[in-house]
Structures are given as C-alpha cells and as structure tokens.
Design a protein that fits this description.
Elements (H helix, E strand, L loop, with lengths): L2 H22 L2 H19 L1 H14 L3 E5 L2 H14 L4 E4 L3 H5 L2 H5 L5 E4 L2 H9 L17 H12 L7 H15 L5 E4 L3 E3 L4 E6 L3 H6 L3 E7 L3 E2 L2 H16 L6 E5 L4 E5 L2 E4 L6 E7 L18 H5 L1 H6 L4 E2 L2 E2 H11 L2 H6 L10 H4 L7 H14 L5 H13 L4
Parallel strand pairs: 1-12, 2-3, 2-4, 4-7, 5-8, 7-12
Antiparallel strand pairs: 5-6, 6-9, 10-11, 13-14
Helix pairs in contact: 1-11, 2-11, 8-9, 14-17
Length: about 400
C-alpha cells in the first residue's frame, strides 16, 4: 500500500476507535460479549448437530440449499444457477465469503456484470487495480476523498467535486441504473439461526434489501456462521456492529427465512410477491472442518486489524484475500495450504497479542500464528535468514 493510503487508513481506524471506546465499556456490551463467547463456543463444539438441524429448517422454510466442500464447488454451483436464470447482471452485496472464493475474478470474461451495491466496495470496483479491501466493514477506508473523486470521475466519465454527498449520489445513480435488468442477487450472511432456518444480514445502506428483491437470491455462507437460534444470531451481529463501527446497531437487519410469498387471497400460498422467488443457500466448508477451533470464533468485526501494529504499518499485505491480518493468515492454511499461509504474512506478525486483547471473542491469534510457524518450518516454509541461523547453530554451535 502507498504511504498516503496507510495514513488515511490509520485516520479512519482512529475514528472507529474513538466512536467505539465508550460503547465497548458499557455494562450492556460486557454482558453481550460474555453471551456471544458462550454462543460461539457451543456452536463450534456442536457444529455437526446444528448443521443437520439447519438443513431441516431450510427444507421447512422452502429454502434451497447446496453444500460446497471447496471454493470451486461453490463457484460451480453459482455458475449453474446463473445459467438457469439466464443472468447477465448480478446485484452483489458486501461479503468476505464471496471474496474468499474469488467470485468476481471467476466471472471475469463471462459477460456477466457483477455490480457491487455497497458504496465502499463499489468504489474499489471502479478503482479496477490494487483494489483489495482494508477492513471488513470499511473496505475503502484507505482512500481519501480526493482519490475517490478521481476514481469516480475517471470510471464513470463524471464531473463530481470532492464532496461526499455528490460522490454518493453519483455512484448510487449509476448502480441503480446498472441493476435495472438484474434478476439475480448474491450476498453472504452474518449469522445463520439453526432452529428457525433464518439468515441474518446487517447493513446501513439498504443495499441488501435490493439484492434480496431479485428473482433469485444466492447466499454464500461458511458453516462457522451457524448458531443455535435467532436470538443468538441477533446477539452475534449486534456485537459485530459495536466493534466494527462503534454503533449499538446498524440501520438494517435483514432476516431471511424463505422466498417471497403471500397468502392474502383465500389463504392460498403464492410465491414471488415482491422479493425473491427462489432463495439458495450455499453452505461453504472450504477448510473450516479442519481449522483450529479458535479461528472459527471470529464474528468479522475487524477490530483486530484496527489495533494491529503490523497491519497499521503495512496494510492489507498482511492477510489473505478478504480475511485481513493475523486471523486471515491463520485461515489461509486451511482454505489453501502451508505455502499460501507463509506468503500471506506468517512471519510478519510480532506476536504482541494486541489482536487478542481487542477481540470481542478473545481469539488467541498470536498463539495460533506461533504454532503455525512451527508447523510451517517442519514443511520447509520459513524466512531464509532464519534458515541460515538454524544451520549455523547446528554446524558451528553459533548463530553467526
């Protein structure tokens, strides 16, 4: 990342810190932290049972579902659905899971226009190159208003001034125009309630509501998002919001429990009133079954990278795809392999533990990274300088 981008990112992060400090210390937040830790612990320990219950609940709710063991499996399922619906334009919501499977790269050259509906993601999409996000909920937090103005003007052939509202309205108008003929929406989910078969999504912009109104709504979510009940799911997304944005609650919480329907004419059930006629959930494993249990506690708030000294120094070079910082490095081992884990920044981490101290669910990322370094060394992935020192110690009884 450029020095100017890192400076803007750090300013953005400081704003989030100031906004969230008082909320994080409130008694209600402390109670919520305790509750969510218990929810995540139970959910991970009982994932098989909850997974089976989720599938039964989906059937009851008339939600179609597919199980994807790998990224490629998920992409193949999406390809089949897009072909079934003759899709030419997709309304896409912000989703780290869709970033994990590289959906946009996969669809390049297919003639399908993937339109980001989240403002930050759309700005990065218009940027075209070097457009990896820097925060789970604030993907463009490293770009100042001058740079964003240039991106919008160049990409949309516009003439906006460096004024936030003017930029927002220009991008919004362009997105809505592009989506006029979109019949497919795709998103992730913040949490899945096993008992009810409901998917919870949080947003401030109202864009997920647009996505969910398309004829087909595809939802791609990791199996680690499953929790026992809707009350549990709401608790998880509330805590995520507090630590991600510094607010108690987002503007919108969408709870999707099936396709659009009505029974207002003689109580006869009719589908596709205003929203989706078909909802398909793709439950993604992609290494999660093999992952260190603590990695799966993550609720996606991004507070770890906000406080990480390494991330604040180098930015999104530290992490894997949309999973940023140390936790992203850890997950890359299970999503990809040891080499990817090494290349994602395995040895960038200082093991200081600030990520754990500032994680609402206390993920011991520094300990996970330290253990992974040992495993990585065993299979031959470690810095060359370390190897020289190791050999010198073995051969000369000295590191020199």
């Amino acid at each position: 990342m450029k020095a100017s981008e890192l400076e803007t990112m750090r300013k953005s992060f400081n704003t989030v810190k100031k906004r969230s400090n008082s909320i994080k210390e409130s008694s209600s937040t402390k109670r919520l932290i305790k509750r969510v830790r218990e929810i995540k612990k139970y959910s991970i320990e009982n994932n098989d049972k909850l997974f089976s219950q989720t599938l039964e609940s989906f059937k009851r709710n008339d939600i179609d579902f597919k199980i994807a063991d790998t990224s490629q499996d998920a992409l193949d399922i999406i390809d089949e659905l897009l072909e079934e619906y003759g899709c030419t334009t997709i309304a896409k919501a912000k989703s780290n899971t869709l970033g994990e499977i590289n959906l946009k790269d996969h669809l390049k050259g297919t003639g399908i226009d993937v339109v980001e509906t989240d403002l930050g993601d759309r700005i990065l999409q218009l940027k075209k190159t070097d457009n990896k996000p820097v925060h789970p909920t604030g993907p463009a937090s490293h770009l100042n208003i001058s740079k964003i103005t240039d991106i919008v003007n160049e990409s949309l052939d516009a003439n906006v001034h460096p004024e936030a509202r003017e930029i927002m309205e220009t991008v919004r108008t362009d997105v809505l125009k592009r989506l006029e003929n979109a019949n497919v929406g795709i998103s992730g989910a913040n949490a899945i309630a096993s008992e009810e078969g409901s998917l919870v999504m949080v947003h401030n912009e109202g864009n997920i509501s647009i996505v969910s109104l398309k004829d087909l709504h595809i939802i791609v979510a990791g199996i680690d998002k499953i929790v026992p009940s809707l009350e549990d799911a709401i608790s998880v997304v509330k805590l995520e919001t507090i630590f991600a944005t510094g607010n108690y609650v987002t503007s919108y919480m969408n709870v999707i429990s099936g396709p659009s329907k009505t029974a207002d004419i003689e109580k006869k059930l009719l589908k596709n009133m205003y929203g989706a006629e078909k909802v398909v959930v793709i439950l993604l494993d992609n290494g999660r079954s093999e992952a260190t249990a603590e990695c799966l506690y993550c609720i996606g708030c991004g507070n770890c990278v906000v406080h990480c000294p390494v991330y604040n120094a180098v930015g999104n070079e530290f992490g894997f795809n949309n999973y940023l910082g140390g936790r992203g490095v850890a997950m890359s081992k299970f999503i990809e392999d040891d080499e990817t884990c090494y290349n994602s920044g395995l040895y960038m981490c200082t093991l200081c533990g600030l990520c754990t101290l500032n994680c609402p669910v206390s993920i011991p990322t520094n300990e996970i990274i330290e253990n992974m370094r040992k495993l990585s060394t065993d299979v031959g992935f470690y810095p060359k300088a370390h190897g020289i020192i190791k050999d010198n110690v073995s051969n000369k009884d000295s590191p020199y």
